[in-house]
Amino acid sequence: MDSPDPLILPSTEAGIARAARLLRAGELVAFPTETVYGLGADATSGPAVAAIYAAKGRPSFNPLIVHVADAEAARRHVVWSNMAERLAGAFWPGPLTLVLPLAPDHGIASLVTAGLETLAVRVPAQPSSQALLRAVDRPVAAPSANPSGRISATTALHVAAGLGPRVAAILDDGPCTVGLESTILGIASEGPVLLRPGGLATERIEDLLGETLRQREDSEGLSAPGQMLSHYAPAAAVRLNANAARTGEVLLGFGPMDCDLNLSPTGDLAEAAANLFDHLHRLDATGRPIAVAPVPVQGLGLAINDRLRRAAAPRD
Ligand code: TXA
Ligand code: MG
């Protein structure tokens, strides 16, 4: 027998309370953050976390981010440091994930870290995710709420279309405002390393720390195991740095130009970030190959180009 469709819960007090109860009972609940929708499960429960990997078809060597309501909650699970304090003080709650050494009595299911001795922690800013995390009162493991390797979800509809009955419920709080996953910064050893560009512009971190961030290279392989080259992939082929569509293609534009969908007609990178995944979902639904106009590589453009490069990468 088919499982029933997921419950769509409104982000009201009652909806959030229901979502929290389901999470505490070990169910999978998709929930909104300012970056993308997350596929949440109780991070202290091995079986609940195992269900995330099964629902996404995610390789079990790819660790998950743990979400908590504030820095104080994060400190229960990781070895805190001066640098963590500075970064959290400046950017939490917000689209920054910190990778730190696991604390001795961390309480996190080992599947979450895929056997690593570090943990990725994040404090989302969206009021509904804040309310949910406080109601759950446990750390919540959550990857982006899309099938592994596919386009991330920035609306409840994207989640329902991608994961359907594999989630118990979806907390719906409209489209995500940032639209790109969090920036991931490794600060577990030596100096800070940018593990994934994302919704917090790298320049803002560099300004705070007063140093240029070292970037993890793709050739460094599994130090940020989820950063496979092919990722965020639509079903259709993707061609980058296109100034016009070729026959049969649909064109995703940026700045003033003639195109099928425009990330930002005025060339605003924050608007382009917020539109990126939704526009890719829409163009993918046409079934035609997608050509994408160039997007400047600065500010949020670094993360946008990272996602586009992976969307266009050769697939296995
Ligand atoms: O904005 C976001 O970060 C969203 C929302 C839901 O919070 N989450 C998200 O999760 O993007 P996910 O699973 O799609 O991406 C998490 C990335 C993966 O590339 C994973 O390999 C990396 O974080 N990661 C997790 N734990 C890590 C660790 N201990 N060390 C290095 N990388 C880690
Ligand atoms: Mg993801």
Which helices and strands occur, and which strands form pairs?
Layout (H helix, E strand, L loop, with lengths): L6 E4 L2 H12 L4 E3 L6 E5 L3 H11 L8 E3 L3 H4 L7 H10 L4 E6 L8 H4 L4 E5 L4 H10 L3 E2 L14 H8 L5 E4 L10 E4 L6 E4 L5 H8 L4 E2 L22 E2 L10 E4 L7 E2 L6 H16 L5 E3 L8 H12 L4
Parallel strand pairs: 1-8, 2-8, 4-6, 5-9, 10-11, 12-15, 13-14, 13-15
Antiparallel strand pairs: 2-3, 3-7, 4-7, 5-6, 9-10
The structure holds threonylcarbamoyladenylate and magnesium ion.
Magnesium ion binds next to loops.
InterPro entries: DHBP_synth_RibB-like_a/b_dom (IPR017945), Sua5-like_dom (IPR006070), Sua5/YwlC_C (IPR038385), Sua5_C (IPR005145), T(6)A37_SUA5 (IPR010923), TC-AMP_synthase_SUA5 (IPR050156)
Organism: Sedimentitalea arenosa
GO biological process, one term: tRNA processing
Task: Describe the overall structure.
- This protein is globular.
- The model has no long low-confidence stretch (mean pLDDT 94).
- The strands form two sheets. Strands 1-8-2-3-7-4-6-5-9-10-11 form an eleven-stranded mixed beta sheet, with helices on both faces. A four-stranded parallel beta sheet has the order 12-15-13-14, covered by helices on one side.
- The chain has 316 residues and is α/β, with parallel strands linked by helices.
- It has two domains: 215 residues, DHBP synthase, CATH 3.90.870; 75 residues, 3-Layer(aba) Sandwich (Rossmann fold), CATH 3.40.50.
- Helix content is 30%, strand content 17%.
- The relative contact order is 0.15.
- The chain binds threonylcarbamoyladenylate and magnesium ion.
- This is Threonylcarbamoyl-AMP synthase.
- It is found in: Cytoplasm.
- It is an enzyme of class 2 (transferase).
